[in-house]
Design goal:
about 160 residues; mainly alpha; Rossmann fold; 2 domains; 3 strands; binds S-adenosylmethionine
């Protein structure tokens, strides 16, 4: 409840103040929460740990995160900035980008924003729990997105499938 009020309050602040709050939030609060639950490795040492975890353990860890956490940093996704970058990159390459693959879509904040802009969006995430949450958010907004469970390290689509 307090968190929602904070997010609403943030909307009225100038962008520069929002950026500072965003950094403080991610550095202090979101990170601390994860560290408390999973230990420092999840944040600080996850790359090293990843090499020693099986795929099933990695999926379980992220499913657990998605079941038990409201991950603050996801409310911070700057979809407008990312959409602007996509449009700019299309212009630079003289390409009309219409299809997007988002890898690690989480609970769909960016994916839904991109679909609302008219892109055909496919989402890949390792966590079925994240995908379940994302899909139900998209359904609420009547947004159609293709959801796939899988690993960034082994993308289940041929090269140049999206463009
Ligand atoms: C910070 S969240 C993504 C937020 C989302 N991009 C947005 O802006 O709304 C990171 C996501 O990456 C997923 N993830 C982590 N490791 C992954 C991997 N190896 N392959 C695919 N997804 C992964 C997690 O399950 C998590 O949902």
């Amino acid at each position: 409840m307090a968190h929602r009020a904070y997010l609403r309050f943030k909307q009225i602040l100038p962008q520069r103040v929002k950026d500072v709050l965003s950094v403080v939030n991610q550095r202090l609060f979101a990170r601390r929460r994860l560290q408390r639950k999973y230990g420092a490795w999840f944040d600080v040492d996850w790359r090293k740990k990843f090499r020693t975890m099986s795929d099933a353990e990695w999926i379980r860890a992220y499913d657990d995160v998605w079941k038990n956490h409201h991950n603050d940093c996801l409310d911070e996704t700057d979809s407008a900035l990312i959409l602007h970058s996509i449009a700019q990159s299309g212009k630079r390459q003289n390409k009309n980008v219409r299809e997007i693959l988002e890898i690690g879509c989480g609970f769909g904040t960016l994916a839904i924003a991109m679909a609302k802009e008219g892109y055909a969006v496919t989402c890949l995430d390792v966590s079925t729990e994240a995908l379940r949450k994302a899909e139900s958010r998209a359904l609420r907004d009547n947004i159609s997105i293709r959801w796939e469970q899988g690993f960034a390290e082994n993308i289940p689509f041929p090269d140049k499938s999206f463009g």
